[in-house]
Amino acid sequence: MTSPASSSEVKYLIESSEGNTFDVSGAALRQSNTFNAMFLNIGADGPIPFTDYNEATLKKVFEYCEHSVNEENYSGPKHQDDLSKWDLNFFNEMDQKMFIDVINASNFLDIERLTSYCCERIARMLRGKNTQEMIKVITLPTAEELEAKQKVEEKKAAAAKKVAEKAAETAEKTETLEELPVQQLVQTTRNKLTRKYLSFSNE
Amino acid sequence: MEWIDLPDDSKREVFKRLDLMSRYAMRCVSHADREVVDSTDLYVPRVRFSQGHDNKALIVVYTGIDEFLRMEFSEMKEARGTVIHRLQNSYDLNEASVKVLPYDEKTSVEVAGSILKTLFVHKSILIGTMEFEFSEGSEMIQIITFGLLTRSLDGNPLYPVNVFRVKKMATNWYMKSEVINAIREVLLSKEDLVESDNDILKIYPNMAPPVMAFDRTFEIDDRQKIFRQTRTFMGVNMQTLLNYARTTDGMTTGRFIKDEQRAIWDLDPTPITRFSDQIQMKRFMNESYGLVVRYYKSDCGVWMHIMPPHFEKKFATFLKNETCGLRYLCKKCADPFEYWFYQNLPRRLCNEPEWLNIIYRPYARFPNELKKYNKIVEESLKVAAEDEKRRKKAAKNKRRKEKQLAGVETPEVEVIKSWGFKKTAAKNN
């Protein structure tokens, strides 16, 4: 499916964190400098694993890449007011969480244009705000929320520990059970041999 | 994924796009964000500190073309304390966000100094030009102002602690050379400073942007650091150049952009040599003054360096590498912000009448000259005010025409006011 190619017809398989795969055109992928550096010349056998990012994020990223295939090469940040209608719709559809996911994926894939526009949008959300307002925008957890989150994590860790302990105990038991027939075998053999020896000696 | 999970690189990309005050607010969001903000480089084109009359002080942070933050500090008349008027892209104090600081044994200069320190003393922040503008006064008053400024930065005149990273220092002509040297040595980082300018703006009754500049370059050190004094003229005054050159122990330069000034080049009979692909040069010795004249012409304009022969050797590297000698007067070659700044410098006459210490004025000990010059300033003020009205009207008409051409109602570009500079900010801060 995937081979080093310059034709835009070539499709590449992308694998997401869920293990799902989907097609992306070579032309769209070539907007990623990471892809260009890693796969463009050598090709890829099988799906390209971008498994740090979920399917929705990757699809969003490549939707943008597919759309901007025919645009001129990126030459520095564009003023937000100069964005096309499609671009504006694309960004308006995303919530803040998606923005952050897309920035992260786009930053890893090194797609300058998308990273730049997303960062500009986040920066616009933050501009002119004071610290408290910024905390609300980036939905940073408060001290109480952090504490609660920590407690939940501790509980989860304790539960996981318990499960692990139980599993270990079960494994021990299984081990003993599994070992029994061997010991029995050894014992039986030993008994037989002893008997043989004894009978021999008796003879 | 949430904000806190975002890698530092991605956060840095966001912070690069924040304005100065948002960046400062972001520093207080969390320890992790503060570290990332502090590792994100910021370039501020120009910062101006002015010391005025009646214990007033002023900070103007120029963040781009037509974009600035203005903080005016004055001491309260009845109760003790400092009042800060904060304005964004405006000079009208009625639009200001006002903050009152209770008396803390600090003068306005010290309060301004501590704000400068909070905003700009950091290794990640580089300032293009830092302008120090002191009002007319004795050397002692200037030394006291410098001392207050240094104290507010937690520094000691002998052992500086906090220093600004500045590429170019600009001072006004009232400032004594001892104070200029002290500021350079104590408040600015030596690694970054490449130019030190002492500016004078000489105005003429007909309000116009500057058309020529004369400067005296005293020193260009091994690392091509330049120290010079510049006079910017809004009218023509060739005689000054020759007077300058005769008395300068260094290189005197005249820079001209007007076409009629280029005619001087054509009149000179010296044979032309080609200095580079774009520049022609005439070099001759003025025997009567014992000075070398190097005369250049390019598409941008004409400029001439006049100096004693030994300075030609001393400044050889600088002269060899020069590409356009018009500095901030050249629309094509100058940094766009620098060009905008100097083109609009004369507007201080009507926009900041209380802060005109960059403008040349004869000393009080020459009352006749002063009287004559004050008249010129008054006339210029009137012309400047009319010019400002005309400019605003023209801008409005231009916008209307653009709308008509576009055929659709285009919304005005929304200017997001910086944190602390909104009119309601005083209640919250």
TrEMBL record, chain A:
Keywords, ordered alphabetically: Ubl conjugation pathway
Domain SKP1 component dimerisation: 113-159
SKP1 component POZ domain mapped to chain residues: 14-69
SUPFAM superfamilies assigned to the protein according to its UniProt record, in alphabetical order: POZ domain (SSF54695), Skp1 dimerisation domain-like (SSF81382)
Family matches, as InterPro entries: SKP1, SKP1-like, SKP1-like_dim_sf, SKP1/BTB/POZ_sf, Skp1_comp_dimer, Skp1_comp_POZ
Record flagged with keyword ATP-binding: no
Pfam families xref list: Skp1 (PF01466), Skp1_POZ (PF03931)
Keyword Transport: no
Single GO biological process annotation from the record: ubiquitin-dependent protein catabolic process
Family (UniProt): Belongs to the SKP1 family.
PANTHER family: SKP1
Protein name as it appears in the record: Skp1-related protein
UniProtKB/TrEMBL annotation, chain B:
Domain F-box: from-to ranges: 1-46
Compositionally biased spans, kind Basic residues: 390-402
PROSITE patterns linked to this entry: FBOX (PS50181)
InterPro entries: F-box_dom
Coiled coil: none
Region (Disordered): 387-408
PANTHER family for the chain: CW-TYPE DOMAIN-CONTAINING PROTEIN (PTHR35366:SF3), PROTEIN CBG18620 (PTHR35366)
Name the record gives this protein: F-box domain-containing protein
Species: Caenorhabditis remanei (Caenorhabditis vulgaris)
Biological classification of the source: Eukaryota, Metazoa, Ecdysozoa, Nematoda, Chromadorea
